[in-house]
Amino acid sequence: MLKKKIKIISLIALLLISLFAPIVNAENETNENQAVPINETQETITIEEGDKYLFQESVTIDNPVDGNLFIMANTVTINSQVGGDAFIVANTINIEENGYVLSNLFACANTIHVKGVAYNIYSVGDTLTIDGFVYRDVKSICNTLNINSMIGRDVFTNCSSINFKEKPNTEGTPSITSYGSIQGDLNYSSDKEISIPDGHVSGETHFSQLQNHTTFDISNYIYSLGAILVSAIIIWLIGLWISPKLLHNASHPITVRKALQIIGLGIIVPIVITLLSFIILLIPITSHLMILLLCILAILFFISTSVAIININTMICNKLKITQNVYKLGFLIVTTVVFWLLTLIPYVGMVISFIAMVWGIGIVSYNILVKENSNEKKSDSSKKISNSEKKKEKVEPKTETENTSGTTTNIKEEIKSDKSTDPIEKDKPNDTTNSKEENKSSETEKNENQNKETDKNDD
Known about the structure:
The chain is α/β, with parallel strands linked by helices. The chain contains 9 helices and 20 strands. Among the domains are: 48-209, no CATH class; 219-374, no CATH class. 19% of the residues are buried.
């Protein structure tokens, strides 16, 4: 406001001087008023179009930016106009007198000092000091809030202390920007009520005391148990529908090597995704992929605990030889309730939750990224072959005895066949039969002769 008044007064003064100035002849004008060359050393202002992504130790914005700012640094200084939003994470943020954020300022810093102009301020930090002008609202979580100038609308804050710059002792009414003032309402939360000086808040002041000790509420526990049960059941059903491998098929025993790989992936994958998102943020062409990577990381963290519970339940069901999905679902509910009860144990519950999160992320990453080596497959096949060979060795003695018995029977059959086929042996039985018949005939002849002799004697 003061600057505008000064500009208007200066323009009026220039007009008056031009009216009352003596008239100069045309000749003198052509001789004396010659063309003055433009100063070649005059700096040209370059407007930087598009969004800017900066990741440095110290960042200073001196040229106007027609877009959004994304900054991560130790110290950030804004000396120019920012056409969009400013997202800043730093230790110290300074919005200088020439700094102008046309849209919202999202700041996370230890110390935030606003000497220029901002449309809205959303901040988290230790100290927020406003010496400039805020068109609309201030929403802040801080330890100390210093208001030394005017805020156009409301203030919403959670802080320990609020300090206003006092009105100057002048004969007339002081300027609005010469002291700390809130043109709307003040809504603040604190451990105790803060004394607000009169005349500094145009609207109403609302105070809410922070509760240091929370009362026991069973509804919170029921809600947390229901949330973890629903998420585990839904992910289990999705896993059965899509593919059980996504939840790590626990029918195969987990070796020490595989367990170490799962834990390593559970720790490394979130770190790698975070680093990739920061690297992509520095490249303007691929900056939009950062949102995709962060969404993937959020999904991994969201499903990690449920995946770990499902994996534990699958191993238990395999040991108990439970194959029906209905019984598996029942055991899943019991496993989830037991896990939830373990997480309620002080200190121990935090460790269990962290291990489950790492294990769940590692299982998903292992099944997506890692393929079983051919050596492992060969070892499995060799194990199968060795087991089959052992079975064959057990069967071989029986087969040998069967073969020996078979050979003996074959030998006997061959002997019989040889006897039947040998012509010499065929003649032998005929000779014996012929000799027997001759003996019988000779005996009969002897008997007949004896009978004749007896008959003669009788006569």
